[in-house]
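WARN retry 2 of 3 for item q-0093 after timeout on previous attempt; input resubmitted unchanged.
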Amino acid sequence: MNIDNVKKKLQARHNLADSLGMQFMSTPDEDSCMATMEVNENNCQPYGYLSGGATLALAETLAGVGSAALCPDEVAVGINVSGHHIKAVKMGETVTAKAKAVQNGRRLHVWNVDVTDSGGDLVSSVVVTNYILQKR
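OK item q-0093 returned
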């Protein structure tokens, strides 16, 4: 999925993705996209591990990027995020999220997002539902 136009919109103003250090990438698949995030002081718990909330933010933001790429003339808003955190990741490591569209309807998109560590081990498994709104 080509997300270049969505990345330009994200870069136009400071947002949560900037604050948490998310980097987005296109993929050759029509129904998926990817992002990475370095685990640092901006997205860690006080104990030096990746925050589960930051992981969910990565998943929801990536699914939003995917929905925006699929519906460039509309607005995607997250209406549900549900995740299971499997493994802790220490500060200094990088996680990779891959979002795959499960349902790409006219008004609802459902995404499965797997977040893995640098060794490829599953860190979190997240399901995101986006509602597609018409631009006003």
